Amino acid sequence: MSSTLVVHHLRVSQSESIVWLCEELGIDYKLVCHDRDQATMLAPDAYKELSPLRTAPVIEDVDTYTPNPEHIRLAESQACVEWICRKHGQGRLLNKPWDANWKEWLFWWHFTHGSFQPVCQMLLLASSLPSDHPGLKIANSRLSHYLSLINKRLGESKFLVGDELTAADIMIIFPLTTQRAFVPIDLTEYPNILRYLKEIGERPAYQKAFEKAETTLKPLLDANPKSPYSI
C-alpha cells in the first residue's frame, strides 16, 4: 500500500514540527504552506476550515493504490506526529515498552502538551496583567520550574531520552524556540537547554525544514532571540 502525505504548514506555528519530523524520517511528503492573516496574526480562514480545531497543524493522508482510496485528515500535533511515525516511519522515534528508557520517554513525550506548552499559553494570556497579579505569578513560577526540569534532564543526556533523538524532542522544540516569537522567554539561566538548541539547530533535517517551510523566520535558538513577530 502507498499513500500521499500532505502537510499543511501555517507559517510561524507548531506545524513546523511536522515538517521537521518528515525531514528527520526522510519520507516523501507534499508541503502546503499558509501565511498568517497579517491583521490578526491568526490562521487564515482557509486554514481554519481544514481542521475542527481551527489551528495548526493539519495533515492529510490519501491511500493512492486501492480501488476506494481512503482520505484521512488529522489535526492535533501529537496525533500527527504519532500517525506519521507509525505509518510512514515504521515506528521510528517512538520508544517501545521494552526499550530501556521507556518510562522516561513516556513522560517527556506527554510533557510538552500536557504541562509545558499550556503554561506558555497561560503566560501569553496573563502577560497583560499587572506584575503582582496572582495569575501571572503562577504562570511564571510554573514556567521556571518546568525550564529547570528540562535543563536538569539535558544535563544528564544529549536529548530528552538518552543519546538519540525521539518524538519527545520533536514535540518540545517549538515552545523552546518559535513560540518565543509570541511569548518571550529568557533562557540565559539554562545552559543545558541552550546547548541542546544549538545542536538541534545544526541538524540538517531541522535546517532543511526551515528552508522549505519559512520565508523570513529564522530558528529562534538563542537565549533572547530577536523576533520579528508579536501578538
From TrEMBL:
It comes from Aureobasidium subglaciale (strain EXF-2481). Residues 2-92 form the GST N-terminal domain. Belongs to the GST superfamily. Residues 95-229 form the GST C-terminal domain. CDD domains: GST_N_GTT1_like. This is GST C-terminal domain-containing protein.
